[in-house]
Amino acid sequence: MGTIEIKYDLNKEKKAKPNPDELGFGKIFTDNMFIMDYSKEQGWHNARIVPFGYIPVHPASTVLHYGSEIFEGLKAYRRADGKVQLFRPIENIRRMNNSAERLCLPQIPEDMAMEVLLAFVKTEEEWTPSKEGTSLYLRPFMFGNDESLGVHAVHNATFMIIASPVGSYYKEGINPVRIMIEDQDVRAVRGGTGYAKCGGNYAASNRAGERAEQNGYSQVLWLDGVERKYIEEVGAMNVMFKIGNEIVTPALTGSILPGITRKSCIEVLKSEGYTVSERLLSVDELEKAMDDGTLEEAWGCGTAAVVSPIGELCYKGKKCIVNGGKIGAVTQHLYDTLTGIQWGKTDDTFGWTVQID
Ligand code: PLP
Ligand code: COI
Questions:
Q1: In the predicted model, is pLDDT for residue 2 greater than 90?
Q2: Closest ligand 1 atom number to CA of residue 264
Q3: Is the pLDDT score of 1 beyond 60?
Q4: Which among 107, 136, 300, 301 could disulfide-bond with 128, CB atoms 3.0 to 4.6 Å apart, if both were Cys?
Q5: Model confidence pLDDT, tens digit, residues 160-185
Q6: For 237, which DSSP code?
Q7: What pLDDT is recorded for position 169?
Q8: Whose CA is nearest to atom 1 of ligand 1?
Q9: Interior/surface letters 124-150, b for 16+ CB within 10 angstroms, e for the rest
Q10: Does the CB atom of residue 238 touch ligand 1 within 6 A?
Q11: Among 34, 29, 128, 141, which Cα is nearest to 86's?
């Protein structure tokens, strides 16, 4: 007996599956999508899996005017034995509920969220590509949907999941990316929404991201919003540095997204005896480590990007090539360990994967 009844009204026309060499990121969508509604009176209801397509939104809908929107990102992976599995989906569900709490959107009971996610992945399972490095990216999202211009916590909301077969997030793939340390715009401040995965954080990031791209960089590395002194995170990834024998990643002070890949990297590294510090890391300390050569490796980590080596950092026009612009040993080891578990090539000794039966 499930927590919510799901109606299936599936697409009768199946689209042709894409060429696995030309997937890119988030441009191709599967045949169907999941959708359910929330109202204060009825709670979550009307759960359905329907053909992927446009949805009607009232012109006064809260999301269009006041940005009440949160999302998640996780992947389904095709294992070597043909089965499909998810990586730590409960972490995404918990983070989504934390984001919902911050944005005054309704939370979804964990067992209900897991049930609808698994039901949707099961429906679209055949879209999970099998080529190395590819996966089915799942994008759960929720938005406030009151048909009124008053500003208040939402009374009506919509939750959806869409799915997209993807290749690598960066055109560089596993090759090192160039990152610009942003010293003008800020992404988030403590007390704001930095720890929540809400659309507004990304809208506010675009201007700096554009500037970085125009200068040949893939993304920006944000500094804290108050002093512009401490390293926070990259546009769509958390960040880690190997400085001497210490692996340093910024502490979760409230303005950084608590990444599931970040958490997994820390758990892998600690289980292997590495010294990992979650602490404040000032840009001055990083600059010093660049100058004296103790910055041995830098990498970003996130669901879309997996583990992505940083080959160059630029701060106020000063460039630093990290590890000769090549992927470092710890970065490569983390990439191999995580992708090994995700694609079912190595034993999941942590118990992180959830198989779709
Ligand atoms: N930081 C930001 C701003 C992100 O968008 C993401 C991507 O989800 C991450 C960090 C990494 O989080 P996760 O590892 O949970 O995907
Ligand atoms: C993810 O890694 O899932 C992300 O959310 C990054 C994204 C904003 C594309």
A1: no
A2: 14
A3: no
A4: 136
A5: 999 999 997 767 667 899 999 999 99
A6: B
A7: 75
A8: 237
A9: bbebbbeeeebbbbbbbbbbbbbeeee
A10: yes
A11: 128
